[in-house]
């Protein structure tokens, strides 16, 4: 860094951030609660109108019989996979090598449930029908993540997805959707949430990714599946006396932003196209299929970050708080387009892209 | 019920409730957030000033090196017991037969950790030094709950507690405190939280019992104990991106109410004395040792509840939303004295007690 302070600090100070919906500050909660009647009763250990109505609404949106609100997707998905294994009595699930459960959960699935995992596909590729057909035949459950976040949010095309679903049904393999970013992929597929979820036996969605809520998740499926998930929620300590701080903000931001996904998607494509013109920079996927993509640089993190810092300071445009090293001369960052991007004057973005172009050229 | 609606509904309508701090409604959160700067940054996955400062403050209050904020006590305590077992390699813990982990958590401890439990003492009695001395000698951890909630919030005297602690230390048995209601027992012992916690290796406290927060818990102990507890918090799905709705309200209501525990305790003794004068009613303990006690009735629940309903309607005083049956002609409810009691005109309470006396006499 050529200036005092970390890249994250400089990023925080930029007025124009390419990604996200703005700061994750207390105002996010205050805004969601401003119009709510103080007399409204809390949910109580998973019961009460407040939680039950939202669960019903989400079940309807996802086209499932029932839905259960969880404090986190980590908890919801481990429980989903455990229940899927209990159906067959074989504790074996298959998922992508960069699945959230494999890389972000400290092996909770294995430590808490002794579930064996089968990693499908190369870590840089999507899971294909062929991968699924080659799985060991005692796999109880397959988890698919749409979009595949850790590889830039890539997506299988709909025909491939439908074929995987048909195969799993035929083979009686439980198919679970990690839909943390489900609403973000609907414009690409041109389908409703219920249409996509119809291919899956169970689905989890998150409220703080593209929707920008505070935290919280929903797990949906048939009642015979969600009912025991509530027992496990209690076992995990997730059946809090009050989950309403998350539920009411989830509801508020869901309604605020679910209709903006087409716009985020179009803007992500526009931004990616602009960035792909910068020499030494490429996006993955080249043309985004949701509101997200990865930005790859042909430069080590230590050489890249001072350049980004200069761009932030000169233009006020923040690209990322931190780059991740992927090799001796490569690094990347993730961009999720939300409300912030649309508020940036277009020439500011162009100015940042062309300064980045210039500084990268000088560094070679 | 002689009137339409359940006892819980009638209770909700009463203007004068003996127990609690008032309705658990959205206003509880709104009040806690009213004065907070909207620009304050969220905690992020267990990091950031907001969570770290509160954890430090609680570590100080509890006299422990470190403290970790958890969404729930269920999660915090299972993890505490697991870590205690990992020290010795023997998955065996001892606790009271009516311990929260035994009766309210759907066997999470056993299902998630395969930990064997040794139940100490008769379910109607406190755990004594003698019970502890008679445990199997491979017990890794003893959990004590102060006060013992399910038997009216009884407490061992301090000398007994100190003797149990000394014995555990000598035998290298990990001693964990279920201090869900720790602040509530300090006036009886005449000790600080740190003095009581000094007898224990680890301690959990709750923010929504006597303190009246929304949800949340803290687990405290040495850094070598709390550090791995964060890994398990991640495994459980409790390491949320944002826990601030619970942390900030925990902090607000902790500071609001921690100084009122002596008052709640005195009021609980006063109220229990008044109720013990009603024939057919007795409190457990007879003289409360915290802000809580159980109210026992020599009547079946089905005969009792219409009488309670009449008392609520005639006097406006609410005693409980529901009684629990304990035998063919016995039932009880729990009373936790909080802010509500002090706001009731004294003659209203007397009026309710004497009507209860009269109606119970007529029912015999």
TrEMBL record, chains A, B:
- Where the record annotates domain Aromatic amino acid beta-eliminating lyase/threonine aldolase, the positions are 34-292
Please provide, in alphabetical order, the Gene Ontology terms of the cellular component aspect for this entry.
cytosol
Matching InterPro entries, A to Z?
A: ArAA_b-elim_lyase/Thr_aldolase (IPR001597), PyrdxlP-dep_Trfase (IPR015424), PyrdxlP-dep_Trfase_major (IPR015421), PyrdxlP-dep_Trfase_small (IPR015422)
Any GO molecular function: L-allo-threonine aldolase activity
Query: What SUPFAM superfamilies does its record include?
Result: PLP-dependent transferases (SSF53383)
**Record keyword Nucleotide-binding present:** no
Q: Which cofactor does it need?
A: pyridoxal 5'-phosphate
Name of the featured protein: Low specificity L-threonine aldolase
The species this protein belongs to is: Paenibacillus donghaensis
Gene3D superfamilies reported in the protein's UniProt record: Aspartate Aminotransferase, domain 1, Type I PLP-dependent aspartate aminotransferase-like (Major domain)
What phylogenetic lineage does the species belong to?
Answer: Bacteria, Bacillati, Bacillota, Bacilli, Bacillales
Alphabetized Pfam families for the sequence? Beta_elim_lyase
Q: One of this protein's GO BP terms?
A: L-threonine catabolic process
Which keywords does this chain's UniProt record carry?
Answer: Pyridoxal phosphate
